[in-house]
Write a structure and sequence with these properties.
Blueprint: E1 26-27, H1 41-49, E2 70-79, E3 85-91, E4 102-103, E5 106-108, H2 116-128, E6 135-140, E7 144-145, E8 150-159, E9 172-179, H3 180-183, E10 190-196, E11 199-209, E12 214-218, H4 219-233
Length: 234
Amino acid sequence: MAPPPAPVPPLSKLPDFDPRSVPVLGVDAHLPAVPVQHQTPEALRQRFLQPPVWSPEVSSEKRFSSREPAHASVLVPIVLREQPMVLLTERTAHLSTHSGQVAFPGGRADPEDASPAATALREAEEEVGLDRRFVEVLGTLPIYRTGSSFIITPVVALVQPGCVLRPNPYEVAQIFEVPLAFLLDPAHHQRHSVEWEGVRREWFSMPYHDGHKSHFIWGATAGMLRNFYRFMQA
């Protein structure tokens, strides 16, 4: 019997791989942005109460891990400032998975978690100190399977801005926010692809500069945001 194929390493672990250096194949500026009137708290609540018929555009990545799949959840926190902002983190460099990357707060489900939303809320509190009293869960987006064998449920929530965050220094290098309108405008969605050892990888990126630092949103985080755009635009 032939041995199973060797797992394909994650892009972030390839020698000298820098996603910022991969050429942009295209930008989806031809697609319409989600109107700002559809991004208000009430409009977002209504969208999840009466979801449209739609299909996610990105649902899985090419698997590079041989470990057993694990369920996880992330929180997509929409902070209700003067304009809605999405809270994101930059992971610390020493973590074993997705180190140094931009990510939503979240992680692996525990047996004690009653639901994917419970996982997301617990993880957000552990990672960034987000008190669940400030969080209103709206609903979930379709699961997203990562190449590292995580089956992720994105949990979308509204967050009151009065919460004082306390990032866990072991896991989180930085917290930052991106305008929801920026992320729901495909003019900021870039397409990339690279081939490594005969395997073609494709992904989105959404580079953002907050006035102080550039943040390269790509991979699973960008894929889930792309699905959020499709959900809102359907």
